[in-house]
Amino acid sequence: MVCACSSNRDQILKVYNWSDYIDESVIPEFEQWYQEQTGQKVKVIYQTFDVNETMLSKIEKGHEDFDVLCPSDYIIERMLQNHLLLPIDRNFGSTPNYIDDNLSPYVKDRFDKMSGGKYNANDYAVGYMWGTTGILYNAKYVTDEEASSWDVIRNPKFADKIFIKDSPRDVFSQIIIFLRHDDVVAGKATLDELMNDASYESLEAVEAYMKQVRPLVAGWEADFGKDQMTQERGWLSLNWSGDAVWAIEEAAEMGVDLRFSLPKEGFAVWFDGWVIPKFAQNITAAKYWIDFMSRPDIVIRNVEATGYVSVSGAPEVLEAFIDEENYDPIDLSYFFGPGAEAVCVNPVLYPDKADIERSTQEHDWGDRTPDLVAMWSRVKGENANSWTMIVVVVFILAVAAFGVYTKFFKKRKGSRKRR
User: Fold this and answer.
1) Pair 126, 153 in one domain
2) Are the beta carbons of 150 and 178 closer than 8 angstroms?
C-alpha cells in the first residue's frame, strides 16, 4: 500500500465512493490500464462513505485532497453552487472517450437540468448509477390499482404494515407530486417546477399529509424495510428501485409476490455521478478513472457486482441485461436510442418510456434544507410506535452484546445508500 501522504502525488489516485458500490477487482485493473494508456504508474487509495453529507464535509470544511468522488445529484448541485468542482477534461489522447461515446441521452438531459441550468453539470459530473422512487408492495394484500397512487400510504386498510424511507427529501418530493397532481394536469405547474418549490406552504401541506400517514406507519427506515417486506411483516413501502429489485428477488425465493409501482401522479429519479473536487491533486488520473468507469465491460461488471443500474447507454450494456424469458418488451429508446423501442428488460431497473415521461428529479434545497429537516422531525417525532421501539431496542442490544455496529450499517446489495 502506498502511503497517501507521499509527496509523489502524481502516482497516487485518491477515490472516495459509496460502500459496496463497485466491483473492487476493477481497481487493480485500472492501475494497469492507466499505465498502458499514459506510461505512468498510479496507485489507487480507495475509501468509502455511507452518507453524502459526511463526504461533503470533508471536502467543504476539511479541504481533503480526494481526486475523484461519487456524490448524489443534489450534492453535485450544492458543490457546483459552492464552486467545489473542477471541469472534467475529455482529452484522452489515443485513448477512447468512453464518457461521451456511451452516455445515455436521457442522463445527459437530466444533468443539463441540474441547478436549474445555471451550471453545465455535464462539464463537471459524469453519471455513474441511477434509479427511481416508487411503491414496493405485496400483491397478496395490495392490489395493482391501490399501488398505482401515492395515496395508498394513507389507506387505513394497511395500518401498521407500511414502511416509509427515513429520507425527508425523497418523501417530500413524492408527496408534493401527489398533492399538486391536479395543478399539473391543469397545466398550472410542471413536475420539474414542483421539485424547485421549497415554499413554506408546500412544506406545511406535506407535513399535514404525512401526519395523517404517521399513525399507520410501522417504521421509518433506511435499510431494514426491504427485509420486513420479504418476510410479509410489511405490505407496502415507499422505496427506491435498488431496494425493490433486491426485495423482489429475495421474496420470490420464499414464494412471496412483491411488485414495484411508479405511481400515476409522477415520481422522482435519482443519480450518482463522478466528480473531481476543487482540492484534487491528481486531476489527470482522476479523469482517466472516470473514463475507465464508463467503459462498457467495466460498467457491466460494476452493475453485476452492486445490483445498481448504470447511466451508460452503450449497446453492450443493453445487450447484457436483455431477458426475453422473464420480461415483456418495453420502450427504452429514451435511454438507449433508436432500436430500443421494444426490448425485454426488467422494468424496475429500466422504466418504460411511458412511465419515465411522468418523472422528474430532485434538487438541492440550499439554505432551506434545515426547514425540510425540521419538518421531517415533526412528522415522525411523535410516532414512537411499538414496532419502532422494538427495532431500536434490538439494535442497541446487538451493538452492546456483539459489537457489530459497523456490520449492522454496512449496506446490502440493492440498498440505495444516498442519504
Assistant:
1) no
2) yes
Q: Write the CB contacts of 91 (distance below 8 Å, at least 6 apart in sequence).
A: none
Query: What does the pLDDT look like over 348-407, one tens digit per residue?
Result: 999 999 999 999 999 999 999 999 999 999 999 854 444 544 544 444 444 344 444 333
- Same domain? For 120 and 231 the reply is no
Report whether 70 contacts 271 (CB < 8 A): no
Note whether residue 332 is domain-resident. Answer: no
Query: What does the pLDDT read at residue 386?
Result: 44
| Tally of domains within the chain | 2
206 and 157, same domain (yes or no): yes
On whether the CB atoms of residues 383 and 392 are closer than 8 A, the answer is no
Q: Are residues 241 and 281 in the same domain?
A: no
- For residue 119, the model assigns a pLDDT of 85
As given in the structure block, the three cell numbers for residue 171 are 418523501
Co-location of 17 and 112 in the same domain: yes
Task: Assign residue 228 the CATH number of its domain.
Answer: 3.40.190.10
Residue 249, domain extent: 134-268+360-409
Give the residue carrying C-alpha cell 401541506.
205
